[in-house]
Amino acid sequence: MEVKAATLDDVKDLHETMILAYQEYIHIPASTSALDETIESITEKLKNGEEALVVYDHEKAIASVRYIIENDALFFERLSVIPEYRGQGVARLLLNALEEITRSKGYHTIRCKVRMSLTKNMNMYRAFGYTQYGQTIFPLRGIQIDVAKMEKRL
């Protein structure tokens, strides 16, 4: 498996891995805004400063994540591992790469937000050393979603 810094040429792979990974949430209340994203919207975000990583298994895109520097930390979102590659250390591979990027840019904190009702995801981040430092409400499709703010100090 290879982690690659994504370019605009990789937007289709970023979109495809995210859609495949987030399909499992299609039936939860308010679903997820990830499923509303398009190749065009991701392209626009990359043009406006977001960066991304893609993991390839040979030529096949199997995972991705997008990130940006916000204030004093690296903030990532849309960590996506396609279902058939889960449980094989791919998320850890991406998180390790993000930690290296964070350090290389001179920062010591990495952050993300996680829907609190997704206990499996909350527990995964805790297992990787993340702690909850806050909570917010995110309105989505008329429903108020409780979201944990999580971080890891490097």
**Would you give the CATH topology?**
Aminopeptidase
Write down the domain tally: 1
Radius of gyration: 15 Å
Shape: globular
Question: How big a fraction of the residues is strand?
Answer: 35-45%
Q: What does the largest sheet look like? A: 7 strands, mixed
Q: Which structural class is indicated by helix and strand composition?
A: alpha+beta
CATH class: Alpha Beta
Topology order in helix (H) and strand (E) letters = EHHEEEHEHEE
Tell me the CATH architecture.
3-Layer(aba) Sandwich
- The overall strand count is 7
Let me know the CATH homologous superfamily: Gcn5-related N-acetyltransferase (GNAT)
Low-confidence stretches: none
Mean pLDDT: 90
What order do the strands of the largest sheet run in, or round the barrel if closed? 1-2-3-4-5-7-6
Provide the fold topology:
Blueprint: E1 2-5, H1 11-22, H2 39-47, E2 51-57, E3 60-70, E4 73-81, H3 90-104, E5 109-115, H4 119-127, E6 131-140, E7 143-153
Summarize the structure.
This protein is of the alpha+beta class and 154 residues long.
